[in-house]
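User: Fold this, then the next.

Assistant: Folding the first:
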Amino acid sequence: MLESGCKAVKEGMLEKRSDGLLQLWKKKRCILTEEGLLLIPPKHPPPPQQQQQQQPAEPAAKIKELHFSNMKTVDCVERKGKYVYFTVVMAEGKEIDFRCAQEQGWNAAITLQMVQYKNRQAILAVRSTRQKQQHLAPEPQPAAAAAAASPPSVPRSISNPLFMNLGKDPLVRWDF
């Protein structure tokens, strides 16, 4: 478990293209969690465990988290040679390019975790909406009180004008 309380789903090395002028590929130690992707410089110590939180927060400043709530898509750009190139598109439009060996399957793992995260969020949103609607809806009346309070309902088929004279006038002929 990481300090955020999320368990690591996948760990390993990824290469990230730098934002600089030369756009060099830099190795990053990555930890994929149920909440997002942690990018750690390769020489950086592992993220602190919960029992080691007394350490100064300065080393953690190099850890970058790409949270799924801020991710839009993961686009697989191409498979070339031994690498798979893919792009993580963030909600604000920023694109982050990665590459890894084809057999590592980082792009698929990130996509799968992102979809699962978004599905969990959608389910929580629906539950929240239903709870709000239940709190706003009037209290249901017991069946006996509801029956006494409301007039008897007439089935639609009987309220049809063809059936309104039934039983009233015995001389009415029903020739169809």
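Now the next one, as you asked:
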Amino acid sequence: RMGVFTPSGFKVFAGLGMGSAGMHLSTEMFFESVPDEFVDARLDKWQYDENARIIPIIIPRNYLNLYNFGYAQSRNLPKITEGMTSMLSIDIQIQGNGRTERYKGNIAGFSNRLNTILVPQSFMTQANKMYASDAETKASRLIIEVNNPADSSIAAYFQEKKYETEDNKLDAGKTTYFLRLIVGIVLGVGVFISLLSFYLLMLSVYLLLQKNTDKLENLLLIGYSPAKIAFPYQVLTVGLNMAVLLSAVILVSVMRGFYTGMLSALFPQLETGTIIPALIVGVLLFLGVSLINSTLIKRKVWSVWTCKG
């Protein structure tokens, strides 16, 4: 899929202040917009309310780093964390087409991928109609999402058309593609090992039943029902499945504690979520496998009873 960067056809002036720190900055700036599906930040606040006249803004994360480790450090100004950006008051003045309007700005998030100052597409469309001198603002850049960034024909096409890619975004896309491929391979191997484990468990139970065939026949002859004879073996398989589930949950919880800390340090905006979906999947697998095991054991005992009969 492909989208376009829509530039602002008007002048933008912004004043940034944080009263509690006694600081105020002002500058001339610009806006761009892309379709919402290409925005790599949370979209719950990514809506422009015309009545409130508050413009949601997404800025590159490296802008915040440049301020904290460059500008602020050289002038002994307080550093700003991502959580503190909600305290910032942004006064925006837009000029164009003989009109001047004032708005409020709110930083809705930070982007690692889009190196521009983003506003919602709905606001940009409306603002260009009101303030831009040209009737139609031409797209300045394109944003493209491909299925396989590692495809050499993509780079060849860009070279042939003399298109320039921003920084190393194509290489980053290739890395992401290969990571997904590796995860898929690991997931496939994990599913295969799980199926093999299920088969080995059933084979062990079948061998145990086969070994005790004479005892089972004697129990059936003295009046025990097939269901009562199958019950201890069913309890055994259910207990093993429960032990596997508990071990897996404990292992996942411990490992999750290690890697979520590292991911949060590398990507502060990343939502770690909860372990509940894994627990639900584990319980469903436990119930399904236990039901299949119990059914097969019961059928095996019934086959012994039928043959004896």
